[in-house]
Amino acid sequence: MRSPTPSEGLLADEYALEMMRAYWLAGQHRRRVVKEVFFRKAPFRGRLALAVGINQVAEYLTQLRLSEEDLEYIASLGFEPEFVEHLRGLRFTGDMHAVTEGTFVFPGEPIITLVGPIEELTYVEARILNIVNPQTLVATKAFRVVEAAQGDPVLEMGLRRAQGGDASIYHSRASYIAGVAATSNLEAGRLFGVPARGTHAHALVMLGGDEKEAFRLWAQSQVKLGRAPTFLLDTYDSLRSGLPNAIAVAQEMGIRIGAVRLDSGDLAYLSKKCRQVLDDAGFKDAKIIASGDLDEYVIRDLKLQKAPIDMWGVGTNMVVAADQPALGGVYKLAAVEENGTWSPRIKVSENPEKVTHPGGPKQLIRFRSRETGYYLADLLMLPDEPLPKPDEPFLIFDPVHTWKRTCLRNFTVENLLVTYVRGGKRALPEQSPAEVTAAARARVNTQRERFYEEIQRLTNPADYKVDLSEPLWKLKMQMLDARGRQ
């Protein structure tokens, strides 16, 4: 059977069509609204996330179309011909404001803000979340792995465990943005300029059954490419056969050992023994690579045990974010245009986490200390509010525990939201996918130095202030009070 080709146009939830039809029948389908993408809780018991997938969302919006095949399928679901014909003209004609790819973001902050007709913003909901949720999740996981490695190169090798081809490619990219040094995924390398690297599998050793001869053939192949070979040691026994055979082949051929790779067993013990034997044999510059179900916690523990590991190969636990399968990002209505002005909307819940911030399209700004260079806090503001003046003290307060107040002084202000799409057209200069990816990676590296280490640590990280401006906070309280009186 020939595999079907998915339609980008139909990557939407069926209920979107049901709601669009209701708006259309009521003549409300072109009402302009504001919708925001955000997450309520940071993943992996952390405080922050790395926003990734933003540029892909912009590309999706500017290319949104329904093909004849798409329309035929929608008609088969029972929608009337007039509504199906109306959908023929579906395009995204609105605006998209978002944080720049690779930005550190926090719970409740709008990663993406869309402004446009309700029918358009309804249809694109599922696909936007489908892009941003997993890529942001994997980027955040990869960032944690890279942090645990403390500057050692991390190799991403999760293609075979990723949930499908597209996921493997974009998750490799997300990992690279987060700081991973290279990928095993050739297509991610081709599309996004991620360095592609690899060693060899156990099958190369097992094919002939003679480990030493297999290592010799491998070394000859690598030397012809001008490379010092990396030997995978644990096919039979890392210390009793793998390492002695690798050293013997290198000595006989008069070549360097680039690295040895340990893929199983007690990695702390094995790496220490390998380092000792390699050094004694004169291969002091040979690196040790570890792989095999690694994550940030295993790497951190190996670091604490002073395992002399130089590089880390991480696959499953990073590329599928094994300990948290979903980010939980949501897409909520914040405002509706009425008589040329924005009328705020709020979602109320018994769970305080699920109460949204009304109004929009909001501003999201980040304060940075002029003295230390560190980021101090983020602030959500209504669209018409003036920015804080850097030369004047500015008071912020916790929106829940309002007695917790901080007076900021001597700061700069960064506006985090950039216009990606205006009137359905791309608003930013054209860049190649590799250029966008490289810029996002550089941004992560810069932010790594600008956020306090306590906020970035793996367990029990410190809080980072994300506050509401006083006008926004008052609006929210007024709307909650009004709801409570009904």
Automatic annotation (TrEMBL):
Protein name: Nicotinate phosphoribosyltransferase
Pathway this chain belongs to: Cofactor biosynthesis; NAD(+) biosynthesis; nicotinate D-ribonucleotide from nicotinate: step 1/1
Organism (species): Symbiobacterium terraclitae
Post-translational modification: Transiently phosphorylated on a His residue during the reaction cycle. Phosphorylation strongly increases the affinity for substrates and increases the rate of nicotinate D-ribonucleotide production. Dephosphorylation regenerates the low-affinity form of the enzyme, leading to product release.
CDD domains assigned to the protein according to its UniProt record, in alphabetical order: NAPRTase_A (cd01570)
Known EC number: 6.3.4.21
Xref: Pfam families: NAPRTase_C (PF17956), NAPRTase_N (PF17767)
Keyword line: Glycosyltransferase, Ligase, Phosphoprotein, Pyridine nucleotide biosynthesis, Transferase
Enzyme class: ligase
Biological role stated in the UniProt entry: Catalyzes the first step in the biosynthesis of NAD from nicotinic acid, the ATP-dependent synthesis of beta-nicotinate D-ribonucleotide from nicotinate and 5-phospho-D-ribose 1-phosphate.
A GO MF term: glycosyltransferase activity
Family named by the database record: Belongs to the NAPRTase family.
Positions of the Nicotinate phosphoribosyltransferase N-terminal domain: 10-133
Catalytic activity field: 5-phospho-alpha-D-ribose 1-diphosphate + nicotinate + ATP + H2O = nicotinate beta-D-ribonucleotide + ADP + phosphate + diphosphate
InterPro entries: Aldolase_TIM, NAPRTase_C, NAPRTase_N, Nic_PRibTrfase-Fam, Nic_PRibTrfase_pncB, Nicotinate_pribotase-like_C
Domain Nicotinate phosphoribosyltransferase C-terminal: 362-476
